[in-house]
Amino acid sequence: MGSEDSAVAVKPLWTVLRRLEFPLGVTVVSFFILLLLTISILMPAVDWPTQPRDYTHMFDGAVRMVLGSDLYHGKKQGWDPFYCYPPTCAALVAPLASTHVNLALSFWSALHPFFAVLLVYFSGLLFGLSTRRQWLALCAISAIALFSPFSQEFVEGQVNVFVTVLVVAGLLLLRRDRVVAGALLLALATHIKVTPGILLLVLLVTRQWRAAGWMCAHGLWLALVPLVWMVPALGPVNGFVHNVDMHVYFVRDIVLTAVFKGQYMDFSMYRWANLSVPGTLHRLFDDNAVVAAGSLSPGAVLFGLPPALLDWVARLVALAMLGGGVFVLRRASSGVAVTGTALLVWLGFQLGNLVCWEHHLLSLVPLFAFLMVMQWPRKEAWILLLAGAMFLVLSLPRLWEMAPLFMLAPVDNEDLVRNGKYGVSTLVVLAFWAVSLYHAWKHAVPTGPAAQGKESVT
């Protein structure tokens, strides 16, 4: 076929791809995913069966779900790690428990790069990225600045990429008036990890009564999903009672205990990798905190303060972040501002939680897309500054940690440990949250034709 014929054949295909909202950026991020697939998936394929990665407690919960046994046995016995998610999460993973372990691990690891592509793509759609430059910028930030959250998610076999995709897709459906489906995805995300439940508050504050009602309704019937496994294992009555017991234990002994007593796991939860506000405060000022992973030596990094005081300061910071988000939500009349602020409320809730590991920061992907669509002075410079800070503090040390694979340098993650130990990583994320909330507030009320009539999340 000649060059002219090729041009004629390619043009319609490109037109079709554009109509399917399949921008060039998705192709670029696919190459990024292939790189991470090589580094972060093929390595764990050898490493996972012998290393206590995070996926182990997920699979432990799945096996116990199939057997109808106590999902939180590990928590009660003081294991680390232990299954700490809602019962429905174990029910969703349970089909893997009936397959060969190698097949289950291969399928579980293969899902991560696929959902990483979906996360970048849905984030761009959520905020209406319209130019190739915007798409390429989002892909570059995901590939470079946020390499550390993605790589840790893949290496540990975590579930944050699934949760973040569900949240972003749910908000996207709500903005497109697909209220029932959008609320379902938000409820499903909450049944995998409880933190997206804060979005119910967002729906209530913005008076999205129908979406809030559907999210509650979906949450109720999703709580019955474990019966698919518990009834065959224990019988109808015992299966139902066991399901209720598991939900009661999760709410009372994991969620409420963490919220009101500040108890989740032992003092090692304050180690350097925990980026949460409570984790950072206790690491710096709690004489009982264990800073290094695997160490039994407690001690404050700076100087000791009463742990109760640190708990109250952390709660006040978390409430201030939540209050700031609610204030902007009440003022916002732009759909973009409301959606972006909803994600900031979720990020603030994550940072105010007792633990917030690097892989929890996948929620930054849609927030970078949010910053890209707003108009503000020196926007590119600010985004570059924020992305560069993320890269220098988190991703560059993590990339350097992988250098021995290519015989470039010896193993040394001293920079990564120091950044976490002294709270530098946490300060960078908090600065990102503050800059984003400020500009969400500045753009909460649109000017011109867009100001006619209030637009909400839906």
Number of helices: 21
Structural class: mainly alpha
Portion of residues in helices? 55-70%
Q: Output mean pLDDT.
A: 79
Work out the strand percent. under 5%
Give an overview in words:
With 458 residues, this protein is mainly α. The protein has one domain. The longest helix has 26 residues, at 101-126. Residues 1-23 and 448-458 have low confidence and may be disordered. It is globular, with a radius of gyration of 22 Å. Helices cover 69% and strands 0% of the residues.
Brief summary of the model shown:
With 458 residues, the chain is mostly helical. The protein has 21 helices and no strands. The protein has helices at residues 3-19, 24-47, 55-67, 73-77, 87-97, 101-126, 132-145, 147-156, 160-175, 179-192, 199-205, 209-222, 227-234, 236-261, 277-285, 307-331, 335-352, 364-373, 379-401, 414-421, 424-442.
Topology, pairings included?
Layout: H1 3-19, H2 24-47, H3 55-67, H4 73-77, H5 87-97, H6 101-126, H7 132-145, H8 147-156, H9 160-175, H10 179-192, H11 199-205, H12 209-222, H13 227-234, H14 236-261, H15 277-285, H16 307-331, H17 335-352, H18 364-373, H19 379-401, H20 414-421, H21 424-442
